[in-house]
Amino acid sequence: MAIRHFLSTQDWSRTELDALLARAAQFKKEKLGDELKGKAVALLFFNPSMRTRTSFELGAFQLGGHAVVLQPGKDAWPIEFDAGTVMDGEAEEHIAEVARVLSRYADLIGVRAFPKFKDWAVDREDRVIHSFAKYATVPVINMETITHPMQELAHILALQQHFGTTDLRGKKYVLTWTYHPKPLNTAVANSALQIATRYGMDVTLLCPTPEYALDRRYLDFAKQNVAENGGGFAISHDPDAAYRGADVVYAKSWGALPYFGKWENEKPIRDAHKHFIVDERKMALTNHGVFSHCLPLRRNVKATDAVMDSPACIAIEEAENRLHVQKAVMAALARQ
Ligand code: CP
């Protein structure tokens, strides 16, 4: 039987996602289990993390397993991903060996590998995690690459628990771009678009200009999800119109894809849209809307102190849910 990885929520049916969310809600009530008893999880971080590392490591522990964290190029050997290359550069070993050796030690492999931010045509292939999935003989979990599926599940669980229902259909959902001094990964935005449309919400992607629209793949997923699950999808560049009547505001900053690798040309556009900050005035336009963010978040750059400290902010709840949903995913994958 083929190994089932968790690379994207789009690869998992709604029924399967619902079951994972239900299991996560149980873990939230009763945190200990034995689903990973005697099992090991290898967590590879090519980029920094606070929440993901902590919640995966402690989640494995709480289910009776053990997690090992590796940072290739720092405390583990740098890895080569090109096939057939003469490895006379920085990399000391090839993914073909790394993934297969780790599979002999560990029962699950988690990978965080952000884009290189030079060429989107290359980064959109998500080669690092797909290479792990190709060579590993155990399940591979996406801990954020060009999507962030664990954040998606944590976000949906937070919304379900906030609204007191698993049925989010018809909620007016705004995914808003916000300013950040650096061009950031589109992963969480891609993910929010995917999962909000998957759960039948009426989604508006609010961004400064058409250049900030997300990759065609994720726009197409959104349209496909709307066709299958109801709800809606539109793009807006008008903050007040987008916020008006919203039930959910989810914020993220990202770099405009047409400027990938030429970020000095994007900077003036980004700098001209600092007013996309989530503030009290915009939140007052919503339908008593709830606000969230994946964190980390720069206060008073992406969202004001008043919004972050308001009862409408469920970002901490969402962050907590990372622990619960990841335990549900690890337990499901370890059963294979
Ligand atoms: N939201 C999230 O993935 O946080 P970290 O980058 O701290 O892991």
Give a verbal description of the structure.
It is a single chain. The chain is an alpha/beta fold and 336 residues long. The chain has 2 domains: 9-147 and 322-334, Aspartate/ornithine carbamoyltransferase (Rossmann fold, 3-Layer(aba) Sandwich), CATH 3.40.50.1370; 151-319, Rossmann fold, CATH 3.40.50. Helix 6 (149-163) crosses helix 13. Helix content is 40%, strand content 14%. It binds phosphoric acid mono(formamide)ester.
| CATH fold title of the largest domain | Rossmann fold
Report the end-to-end length measured between terminal Cα atoms. 9 Å
Order of helices and strands: HEHEEEHEHHEHEHEHEHEHHEHH
Largest sheet: 5 strands, parallel
Unreliable residue runs? none
The level-1 CATH class of the largest domain:
Alpha Beta
Second rung of CATH, namely the architecture of the largest domain: 3-Layer(aba) Sandwich
Proportion of strand residues: 5-15%
Biggest sheet: strand arrangement = 9-8-7-10-11
At the fourth level of CATH, the homologous superfamily of the largest domain is Aspartate/ornithine carbamoyltransferase
Tally the beta strands: 11
Number of helices: 13
Tally of structural domains: 2
Describe this structure in a few short sentences.
The chain has 336 residues and is α/β, with parallel strands linked by helices. The protein has helices at residues 14-29, 51-62, 95-105, 120-123, 127-135, 149-163, 187-198, 216-229, 239-243, 263-271, 280-283, 305-308, 315-334, and strands at residues 40-45, 66-70, 79-80, 93-94, 108-112, 140-142, 172-177, 202-206, 232-236, 248-252, 290-293.
